[in-house]
Amino acid sequence: MNINLDVEVVEEDQTITLTLRGEIDAYTAPKLKDALLPLTKKPGAEVIVDLEQINYMDSTGLGVFISALKSTKEYDSELKLIQLQDRVRRLFEITSLDSIITIESTVRGGN
Amino acid sequence: MENFDFVEMKVPAKPEYVGVVRLSISGIANRMGFSYEEIEDLKVAISEAMTNATTHAYKKSEEGDVTVGFGIYENRLEVMVADHGGSFNLSNVKEGIGPYHQSESIENLREGGFGLFLIEALMDKVEIKNDYGVIVLMTKYLYANEVGLDDDQISTTQ
Fold first, then answer.
1. Global pTM?
2. Which residues contact B120 (CB under 8 A, 6 or more apart)?
């Protein structure tokens, strides 16, 4: 059990992968925002956020991804969320944010 | 009067304790027999209420506590989250509750407006009182267990 958040960044040319582990809530969301937002400010960058090991997220996480999305529009970069657990995906669906944020459509657990 | 157990926690109004309260509800709901999905709903709902209480309630003064109460009934869990900060503006929070609509431009999209919307989406009943501080009272019923109650009783040793 890990109620904290670990963030790992791997940059390969224009593709930046952010691998997250743990839980995103009011306490850990600022850490995510600090890590994610600067990456979206690189024009042409494709920022991929791997959520496979995020087993809890709430509206504070949605807020961070909305900020990041706005930033990509401003700096001409891209944001993509991948490997969402069903629970996390459901939050994007309930709020209809899945219609504006690019979310990998493959079902988790398929590989 | 209906029998129930009551568990009360008082935690500092700081984001650090949102996760701690979330673990507590997970334990209580698990013991009551809620399903995995329902427990996940409860965790999000109580975290949203805690987040509101810690970020809105004590903006001016750093000191403050949030009181969380769990009413454990045979057929439902009642959760109360109360802050006594008094500076929480309920009408501001209630404005703009709801899912994202395609017509909204991304620039105007709110970053913190989904908390109360999620509480209402995930719980069966939600009441918010704003007399002295803010009290969020939310209920989730144990529907699944009502169906399986007879089965359980057969295997119970007296």
1. 0.85
2. B97, B126
